[in-house]
Amino acid sequence: MSGKFSDEPTRIAETIVPLFAGQAGGFLPVSSPDGSRVELTAGADDQDDCAVFRLTGSHDLVVGSDYIRGPKFRLYEMGHLDEYDLGYYLVAANLSDIAAMGAKPIGLLSVVRYPAEMDDALFGFVMKGIRDACAAFGCLNVGGDIGGAERLILSASALGVCPAGGALLRSGAKPGDVVCLTAPTGPAGAAMAYLRSGTPDEAIDRLLPSMLSHWKRPVARIDEGLALGASGVVTSCQDTSDGLKATLLSIAGLSGVGITVEERTVPVLAGVAAVAAHVGVEPLSLVMGDSVDFELVFTVPPDRADELAESLGFHRIGIVTEDPEVVLRAEDGTRSDLPGKAWRHQSDRKA
Q1: Using an 8 Å Cβ cutoff, are 83 and 73 in contact?
Q2: CA distance 70 to 87
Q3: How many beta carbons lie within 10 A of that of residue 232, not counting itself?
Q4: How far apart are CA 25 and CA 22, in angstroms?
Q5: Who has the most CB within 10 Å: 102, 153, 262, 282?
Q6: Residue 65 CB partners (closer than 8 Å, separation 6+)
Q7: pLDDT at residue 351 tops 60
């Protein structure tokens, strides 16, 4: 039985509008004590050229954009991700950037370009992944673009708001600040390392679904980012979408400081340790390397860390220093470069 192949206007009318219906009525207005307010007055289901938000009062608009590889995802090519997963991942990747700024997401604009052989059902599968991820993170896909291309191409832009002057930047870390991490990193990278090894292991196979969930159902730390922004004590923040090492190097470089990471305080999950032993690398090379876990790294003055910990769980992994080096300090006091490979966007990595 052959699939149905509709043109772009039909796919908008028959897939997009039903999936994203009633947006203006379903949008929860963002309100602040000072009377500032954000409302959605026209969404994707209105089929206009643009979505329309009404902003009353004083806000900063936070905007980010991220492209993902679509079928060029290695795990997709290996059969571990499907089109629904790719749509879900697209949303999480973009909203993670909004979370890292301490902002409240108010909308997502998605770009879905698809090959001629993608039928209506498979197209709908991608869009359902986008819709469900938006629902999970309390954000609407208010518009964007669909159309043909030589292969599936997925990109998006995320919109958020925060109180004027309240966005969390990467550049504010101060010597003496505590370096914190919302949750352990490494499982996404460990899943990739294990599957690329081509050597099965029964014990790791039992842990693999949990590690793969970081690819299939990644979590953008929206609530944590809002809590960090509202605290008023966080000096810098960035997500770990390029890996923990790259994040630490970025915060240090942009803040003009150094960071000393304490090896004994860096959390290592059991699955990550098992994969590291299986492929013959140090566990911290997977924890620090280019693992896309979408956690948040942030810095906070030491006298405010306990106060923040009362409302938000996190790991304290290091200290900001005046010396501009970013190093790992072992339990015996020896210092070395951070292990793992820091992700660089101009390289040819395939997720």
Answers
A1: no
A2: 9
A3: 10
A4: 6
A5: 102
A6: 94, 155, 156, 157, 158
A7: no
Distance between CA 212 and CA 251 in Å, rounded?
Answer: 28
Q: Are 146 and 105 in contact (CB under 8 A)?
A: no
First to last CA, the chain: 33
Kindly indicate the confidence band of residue 344, based on its pLDDT and cuts at 50, 70 and 90.
low
Residues 6+ away with beta carbon under 8 Å from 203: 274
Closest Cα to residue 93, out of 154, 184, 152, 27?
Answer: 154
Q: In what helix (H) or strand (E) does residue 187 lie, and over which residues does it extend?
A: helix 187-197
What is the C-alpha separation between 37 and 230, in angstroms, rounded? 17
Rounded to whole angstroms, the Cα distance separating 268 from 265 reads 9
**CB neighbours (10 Å) of residue 221?**
23
Q: Judging by DSSP bridges, how do beta strands 335-337 and 326-329 pair with one another?
A: antiparallel
Mark 293-308 as b/e (b = at least 16 C-beta within 10 Å): bbbbbbbbbeebbeeb
- Within 10 angstroms of residue 61's Cβ, the number of other Cβ atoms is 14
On whether the CB atoms of residues 236 and 298 are closer than 8 A, the answer is: yes
Q: pLDDT digits over 196-244, tens only?
A: 999 999 999 999 999 999 999 999 999 999 999 999 999 999 999 999 9
- Residues with Cβ within 8 Å of 169's Cβ and at least 6 positions away in sequence, in order, are 101, 236, 237, 254
Please give the Cα distance from 331 to 41 (Å, whole number): 56
Q: Is the pLDDT of residue 257 over 80?
A: yes
* 229 vs 122: CA distance, rounded Å: 39
Tell me the C-alpha distance between 192 and 63, whole Å.
Answer: 30
Residues 6+ apart with CB under 8 A from 60: 103, 161, 162, 163, 164, 165, 166, 167
Instruction: Give the list of residues 6+ apart from residue 309 with CB closer than 8 angstroms, or none.
Output: none
Exposure string of 97-118, with b = 16+ CB inside 10 Å and e = fewer, is: bbbbbbbbbbbbbbbbbbeeeb
